[in-house]
């Protein structure tokens, strides 16, 4: 009863603030309200809430909404539960219970923050696009043997492949979700593709939240974006022609949700921020007209994000939905406000004003000016305040960080804090100016100003070096044919040389060793001795199986970006700032807050130690400047190009030191080059010019005799092959096994001049391919790549695999190379 009284008081307090001049007393009341919300005073002891959490059709105040929330858990509980399930250490029921607890906590967190429209079905055990494939029955034919069994077996087989009890099926392709570092499972379509509605997951999760007294807004990936993100598995048809078969399935799912009480449904259509074909645009019009006519009783919120609508603004504004969400952190508010059709309609506009892709504190002043612009044209009752996109891409809670320097921590906001920013913006936007009388606003502006002027950010020596770069710094001494001959004379590698991408399994023992060292439970000498022993064991084993170019295994590295960031100035690191990359794979992106430079060598001692143990070449392993940029939370107070060049100079210093230490092959990984592409082709050239230049700047400080490798992850290379060639790496290794070497065709059509190592097996799957399967893939590659230019390697690093499968797969890989030589 006491909680109900406090709830009513808090509600009344909020009402008295609406529309009144902003006073100090009012701001203090706002602070109290936010505190009560966060502490859960919106709930009684049963966890139920008042119906006000789901607004009626007619309302007279600005609302807040969220598009999605991180799903890994505060301590990566989902990752641990999944991996225990895959290892058969716990049953499916335990995994599902962990998932349920995370969902409940997410809903309650958003409710307590004061979010009006809370999402459901934004949770996923692996990937939301894969969830959609199951929801619409788009299961590839090869998985038919699993369709009669447990759904989890089918689900994870599609994501990871399966190899057990006589069943051996490869995983579906995986690629980057637009220009993020999140990976999705690529839908596969055939000409006669059928669809069937399986609404169990979204319906069950909506009902699960409703049972807690939390009416939610189910989130579905929209039908057009789903098709556009997919891939035709046979030639001669356009997957958009499948829309007529797909839309009725969506209608069935939406009707089922409506029958269970769903009032709002969010349809994500991020493809609207990309270049669309005329057929795709027509598809949007027909699909949404059909859905609207079939389910008029449901309020539809169409969500776009990751970019500007531009020429698609009129299309998005015209679609028959009740609310349109746009990302104003990466796009223009005016693109919709200037549309007369939208202005004169009754549609709500969800303004994505809080950055869901980065971790910097919102500048309340600038955001309030934009909200003021929106409300002046539409009125507050037609405006929703929201993050720009799902908060999936940001860490969970800044309060969990205890070691970030206070001055820098005051510049940051994670997912939990972004909910608060959303609510605060809604509250301040409904107040009369000036906002400067509010302590919340004052504190925010002090933090914003502190970041602009802090000497921690600006290093004059770094800026001076940047301005001193010369054109010659971007070029090797001679073209590739000259370099190849010199390198072959020096390295004397056989035909079809074998290597790996760099990392070996990060076992539990290795992770515990690193943890003990960080905690101070292990001396530096003892730690280094153990790492050297791991390196020695791996070098000896690689020699035994006949590997041609060895790696030291990267046992000392926690992550391919974090490791380098820890050794560069201008970075800070979190302890719990995890975000999902794919499935159970989580990464902890560094934060680039200031100018970057390399104080001292980062990898030279380990590479030198490994090279001293063998007469075979050992690759020096580095992460490239663009990948460090893309896989970090990057400062937004200077152009990304400048930060990339600062990183390139730091990596260049490491490359030249490795060469001086006798390392003849140096790999500079750039898996993120493709994902960094802007969503609009008109912006590609500018990005590719500086991205390629950053790589060349990092790699061109060595002699022709030193061989430079690079590696790229899942990407469609056709549209950027000219830029890949312009990187001028001596050897490029790429991921091609899931596509059965289809991605290699781009290199053949272009007549790529340098050496290529197409991955011959998929390291993201636990299955171990047979030697004959790898030989077949290599023979397919030989149809388009000259034998003297072909390398043999896995398609990515082996960090996430276990030693037994790693050893078996690599031994078969080397046998495949030997078979080709014969």
Can you offer a commentary on this structure?
- It is a single chain.
- Helix 26 packs parallel to helix 27 (721-727).
- It is built from 30 helices and 24 strands.
- With 822 residues, the protein is α/β, with parallel strands linked by helices.
Q: Work out the helix count.
A: 30
**Roughly how many Å is the radius of gyration?**
27 Å
Strand tally:
24
Q: Which of globular, elongated, flat, extended, rod-shaped describes the shape?
A: globular
Class computed from helices, strands and strand pairing: alpha/beta
Output the keywords.
globular, five-stranded parallel beta sheet, alpha/beta, 822 residues, eight-stranded parallel beta sheet, 30 helices, 11% strand
Strands, helices and their partners?
Blueprint: H1 2-17, H2 24-38, E1 63-64, H3 77-86, H4 92-113, E2 119-120, H5 128-135, H6 151-160, E3 162-164, E4 167-169, E5 174-176, E6 183-185, E7 188-189, H7 200-211, E8 217-221, H8 223-229, E9 231-232, H9 243-259, E10 264-268, H10 278-294, E11 299-303, H11 313-318, E12 323-327, H12 334-337, H13 340-343, E13 348-354, H14 364-378, E14 383-387, H15 406-409, H16 415-429, H17 439-453, H18 460-467, H19 480-491, H20 508-519, H21 524-545, H22 562-565, E15 571-572, E16 579-582, E17 585-587, E18 591-592, H23 604-611, E19 619-623, H24 625-630, E20 633-634, H25 640-660, E21 665-669, H26 684-699, E22 707-712, H27 721-727, E23 731-734, H28 745-750, E24 755-758, H29 771-782, H30 803-821
Helix pairs in contact: 1-2, 2-4, 3-4, 9-10, 14-16, 20-21, 25-26, 26-27, 29-30
